Amino acid sequence: DGGPYRLLVVEDREANRQLLVRLLEALGAPPQGFEVREAANGLEAIQVWERWKPHLIWMDMRMPVMDGHEATQRIKSMPEGQSTVIIALTATAFEEDRETILLEGCDDFVRKPFRKEVLYDTLARHLGVSFVYEEREVGAVAPSAGASSVEALAAQPSDWLAELRAATIKADLNRMLALLEQIRGQDAGLAEALEGLAHDFEYKRILTLLEQAGGMM
């Protein structure tokens, strides 16, 4: 309809809902970006859908009041609902569950915990949009209290640094994120900074930081 795309986030857990809203709003505001609204259960989702007709709905499958399965079936049973893209958010990995979700009318599904690039790729695929990722300055990554990322890295155990380097070379994102989780307690700023680079596929940038940190040790 020419205007910005309307996205609806349906998720009963507020922390999860806000994270998803933040990630979507980070893609930009109207007119080029997205309008984002939220609902806490399937019943609210139907009410928002009737009034606002979002182009795409991120639908959690397990919710109180009305779950995502029923809400999806109700929306898709209406003629106008056919053109609404519904992406299931599900913690399950079983084939039969995925099949059920698609048979109920969902157009696709994203497994929780979701990764930022998977969300963006799914959005791009279903709405036919493309994103230009901004180059992130190494100096701009969130440093730990007063120290640069390189200095903060140099303070980490050498075996942990070696593991992170190996995971980065293999581009093993899951292993990288698991390693970063290990240091979040001691240095949340560093963990978040490197997590941001990892999600943006800035592996080369991470290796450069690791190399510089190695030179300081």
SSE blueprint and pairings:
Elements: E1 5-10, H1 14-25, E2 34-39, H2 42-52, E3 56-60, H3 68-76, E4 85-90, H4 95-103, E5 108-111, H5 116-127, H6 149-154, H7 158-169, H8 173-183, H9 188-199, H10 203-216
Parallel strand pairs: 1-2, 1-3, 3-4, 4-5
Helix pairs in contact: 2-3, 7-8, 7-10, 8-9
Describe this structure in words.
The chain has helices spanning 14-25, 42-52, 68-76, 95-103, 116-127, 149-154, 158-169, 173-183, 188-199, 203-216, and strands at 5-10, 34-39, 56-60, 85-90, 108-111. The relative contact order is 0.10. The termini are far apart. α2 (42-52) packs parallel to α3 (68-76). Strands 2-1-3-4-5 form a 5-stranded parallel sheet, sandwiched between helices. 50% of the residues lie in helices and 12% in strands. Mean pLDDT is 84; it is low at 134-147.
